From TrEMBL:
<dbReference type="GO" id="GO:0003980">
    <property type="term" value="F:UDP-glucose:glycoprotein glucosyltransferase activity"/>
</dbReference>
<feature type="region of interest" description="Disordered">
    <location>
        <begin position="233"/>
        <end position="262"/>
    </location>
</feature>
<dbReference type="Pfam" id="PF18404">
    <property type="entry name" value="Glyco_transf_24"/>
</dbReference>
<protein>
    <recommendedName>
        <fullName>Glucosyltransferase 24 catalytic domain-containing protein</fullName>
    </recommendedName>
</protein>
<comment type="function">
    <text>Recognizes glycoproteins with minor folding defects. Reglucosylates single N-glycans near the misfolded part of the protein, thus providing quality control for protein folding in the endoplasmic reticulum. Reglucosylated proteins are recognized by calreticulin for recycling to the endoplasmic reticulum and refolding or degradation.</text>
</comment>
<feature type="domain" description="Glucosyltransferase 24 catalytic">
    <location>
        <begin position="9"/>
        <end position="231"/>
    </location>
</feature>
<dbReference type="InterPro" id="IPR009448">
    <property type="entry name" value="UDP-g_GGtrans"/>
</dbReference>
<dbReference type="GO" id="GO:0005783">
    <property type="term" value="C:endoplasmic reticulum"/>
</dbReference>
<dbReference type="InterPro" id="IPR040497">
    <property type="entry name" value="Glyco_transf_24"/>
</dbReference>
<dbReference type="GO" id="GO:0018279">
    <property type="term" value="P:protein N-linked glycosylation via asparagine"/>
</dbReference>
<feature type="compositionally biased region" description="Low complexity">
    <location>
        <begin position="252"/>
        <end position="262"/>
    </location>
</feature>
<dbReference type="GO" id="GO:0051082">
    <property type="term" value="F:unfolded protein binding"/>
</dbReference>
<dbReference type="GO" id="GO:0036503">
    <property type="term" value="P:ERAD pathway"/>
</dbReference>
<dbReference type="InterPro" id="IPR029044">
    <property type="entry name" value="Nucleotide-diphossugar_trans"/>
</dbReference>
Length: 262
């Protein structure tokens, strides 16, 4: 959605000014002692789950992660205020209502079926974390310890950011969020879409439809959002080219390689 002439760190200040939100950038350097990932996607997945206790300032009590390919249709304050019933974090389980996808539900058989028992396999596209509880039970240390043991095997943790918390569900409890907090066409039936509080553009292993094509088809408001952001960045680019304004220059926190978190 963002054109090649603006990187994310340049576009955020423009969007903050246009839409009236505040933001900060946080940074954390991957520890040398922890098994390194080399693929960009897996590095991102690692940051999503391995450093929740140290990535954010101690004054931050809760965080909500939302995937970039997700459309929010509700007030996230509802999710922030949701009672996690003592769990350090809450995830939404995968839907099981689209029956034609039953053959692709890998968590219904084999290792996952045995490991989870009567528990559900949760998706990592959206989650809420109670950082106070998370730190109190040393959940970060537990997750990193399990990651260190499993990641030596290249066949383990194929979906790192999902497999790790689901694998640790007996040691670090997951509160299952109400299903409407994450609707995905791949796994959820059409009848449940009207109640969706967020719509996630999950990959579809059956059709392999590109996500941007799926967005236009599935989400009526997507085209309007996409056009609004493109118009904003195009106008900023024109102003910059004409010397009407300086290049945006956000000032992230110091230390370590830079990572963006909204």
């Amino acid at each position: 959605m963002i054109g090649p002439k603006y990187c994310v760190q340049e576009s955020i200040p423009l969007m903050a000014q246009a839409y009236g939100f505040s933001y900060e950038l946080v940074q954390y350097k991957w520890p040398r002692w922890l098994h390194q990932q080399t693929e960009k996607q897996r590095i991102i997945w690692g940051y999503k789950i391995l450093f929740l206790d140290v990535l954010f300032p101690l004054a931050v009590d809760k965080i909500i992660f939302v995937d970039a390919d997700q459309i929010v249709r509700a007030d996230l304050k509802e999710l922030r205020d949701l009672d996690l019933e003592g769990a350090p974090y809450g995830y939404t389980p995968f839907c099981d209502s689209r029956k034609e996808m039953d053959g692709y539900r890998f968590w219904k058989s084999g290792y996952w079926a045995s490991h989870l028992g009567n528990r559900k396999y949760h998706i990592s596209a959206l989650y809420v974390v109670d950082l106070k509880k998370f730190r109190k039970i040393a959940a970060g240390d537990r997750l990193r310890g399990q990651y260190q043991a499993l990641s030596q095997d290249p066949n383990s943790l194929s979906n790192l950011d999902q497999d790790l918390p689901n694998n640790m569900i007996h040691q670090v409890a997951i509160k299952s969020l109400p299903q409407e907090w994450l609707w995905c066409e791949t796994w959820c039936d059409d009848a449940s879409k009207s109640a969706a509080k967020t719509i996630d553009l999950c990959n579809n292993p059956k059709t392999k439809e590109p996500k941007l094509a799926a967005a236009v088809r599935i989400v009526p408001e997507w085209a309007e959002y996409d056009k609004a952001v493109k118009d904003l960045l195009r106008k900023a680019q024109e102003q910059r080219a004409g010397g009407a304004g300086p290049r945006p220059s956000p000032s992230p926190r110091s230390g370590g390689p830079q990572r963006d978190e909204l």
